[in-house]
Amino acid sequence: EAQVTQNPRYLITVTGKKLTVTCSQNMNHEYMSWYRQDPGLGLRQIYYSMNVEVTDKGDVPEGYKVSRKEKRNFPLILESPSPNQTSLYFCASSLSVTGVPYEQYFGPGTRLTVT
Amino acid sequence: AQKVTQAQTEISVVEKEDVTLDCVYETRDTTYYLFWYKQPPSGELVFLIRRNSFDEQNEISGRYSWNFQKSTSSFNFTITASQVVDSAVYFCALTTNSGNTPLVFGKGTRLSVIA
Hints:
heterodimer, A: mainly beta, seven-stranded mixed sheet, four-stranded antiparallel sheet, 13 strands, B: mainly beta, six-stranded mixed sheet, 0% helix, 53% strand
């Protein structure tokens, strides 16, 4: 089954404790991205990756890191989480053929609470 | 810069009524892509439609239809004979073919269909 998986689905942590949210897709998609969803703000892009070893900042990258060592994985790293990073996080992937964007497939979401 | 405006924050209708969700976009690119996603109460994001800027034909899929009008920069979504299962948050999104493919989302419209 074609899918994007994220782990963990729920996480409660404390300020300053490093954490990683994993994202994996099995569709051989070049493009992957992370979004956060906050009430009243919709979805905002954090980071994206056009292909392996190619990453770039989205609209709200502060406080986050990513890496793309393999095509299928795109982990989101919070080196020192703060309460304002409490949010619902989505990973997404899509085909991107010669820059033409196709629909993005989203993971199930990770609800993060930082106390 | 790209922008998507969904002016209707919340809409409530009675089952079997028709409802239209508005989406107005801004971009300077001549090639761009518009999407609609549905987020039901379970939280996942479900792709509904993708439309490129060169295809102004309206689309119908069952009870769903989309009206794309470049003259007014709008991509409105109509649900005919609404059902309780249509209750969800609906997001309109925009991306362009300018080297990277970050999706810019509107803030969403929460649709409640009452039995």
